[in-house]
Amino acid sequence: MHQGAVRVHVHQGLSGIVLAGGRSSRFGRDKLAEPYRGAPLLHHALARLAELCGELVLVLPPRAEVPPLPAGHDVRIARDPEPYGGPLAGAHVGLLAASGELALLVGGDMPEPSVAVLAEMARLALDRGAEAVALRDGDRVRPLPSLVRTEPARRAAGELLVAGERRLRALLGALRVEVLEEVVWTPLDPERRTLLDVDVPSDLERLER
Questions:
Q1: Can you give the residue range of the structural domain that contains 108?
Q2: Rounded to whole angstroms, how far apart are CA atoms 175 and 156?
Q3: CATH number of the CATH domain containing 181
Q4: Burial bucket for residue 157 (CB in 10 Å: 0-12, 13-18, 19+)
Q5: Cα(94)–Cα(100) distance, rounded to whole angstroms?
Q6: Based on the structure, what is the number of domains in the chain?
Q7: Does 5 fall in a domain?
Q8: CA nearest 86: which of 196, 25, 195, 161?
Q9: Relative to the CA of 165, which of 39, 80, 110, 187 has its CA 20 to 30 Å away?
């Protein structure tokens, strides 16, 4: 059992999608291969999702080599339609590859999403029939991590891309969203590490501390 009182178990109708199509330009090298607590950074997001999700989908650039993957997990590979087309395009191909009714979207550079928080997002979606669930962060609603109902999100993402949209935040704007308020999710993750991502080497150093 993880932080808080949320019961955590694998939900076969839940797909975990890890977006790993970025260019790591601010980091200066492939950040997803960087060692973090004994494993490549990418492995952590996959491992966290594996605790909840019946399947895992990893979205990579079109011609990128498949990186070493964590042992013991089956990971389906999906490919961005073009190099560095943005997170909405990555989410769309991940959703096309996903078979679950619901999908959790996490960045490959987000190594410590709280499994208890992710489980609470899934519970909220199932209880309220929401098309999406996202986390409140001060006066913002974060696009990652987020949980979406696969079919309406797949359709909405495709329509947004045709219209020229590239932002993942636009997908939340096109869906019926339930917001998980800070008063609910921060007791499950008091250090708020669920929202942390790695853009530059100092981010990784801060996480290590």
A1: 11-208
A2: 8
A3: 3.90.550.10
A4: buried
A5: 11
A6: 1
A7: no
A8: 161
A9: 110
Tell me the sheet residues that pair with 102.
Answer: 14, 149
- Whether residue 3 is contained in a domain is answered as no
In the block, tokens 């928080």 appear at 117
DSSP state of 147: E
Query: 45 phi and psi, to 5 degrees?
Result: -65, -40
Tens digit of each residue's pLDDT (9 = 90 or more) over 150-179: 999 999 999 999 999 999 999 999 999 999
Tell me how long the chain is: 209
Residue 4 resides in a domain: no
Helices then strands, counting H and E runs in the chain, come out as 7, 9
145 preceded by cis ω (within 30°)? yes
The residue type found at 183 is: V
Q: Residue written as tokens 């979606």?
A: 125
The Cα–Cα gap between 60 and 66 comes to 8
- Terminal C-alpha separation, the chain: 24
For 13-67, write each residue's pLDDT tens digit: 999 999 998 777 778 788 998 999 999 999 999 999 999 999 999 999 998 899 9
Using the structure block, give the residue that is written with the tokens 């190594």: 111
